[in-house]
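#onboarding

Welcome to the new folks! Below is a worked example of what a typical request in this channel looks like: someone posts a single protein sequence, and someone else replies with the predicted structure as tokens. Don't worry about understanding the tokens yet, we'll cover that in week two.

Example request:
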Amino acid sequence: MFFNIEIEENSFSYQTNQSKIDAEALLDGLYIRIRTSLDEETLSATDTVKADKNLSQVEEAFCSYKTVDLKVGPIFHYTAERVKSHIFLCMLSYYYVEWHM
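Example response:
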């Protein structure tokens, strides 16, 4: 995208595509692409952006239950299903303790 590449049997050359670089530079600090595997009916574009903006709260919760607040130690899982379940249970316990307090 940003480079024009030529590969031949005995040579390799490239040139920067300055027009593409300049066009991309105009978007610096102004554009972000958020992707999700969910369809529009399940999670709209607006809700996706809201969820991304709430990410800092999720990260703070993770930090809280992994350190001094709940002291959940590292637990190693070897399947994606178990990792997702472990994270779900940790977050559920965090929100329960937060609600209870």
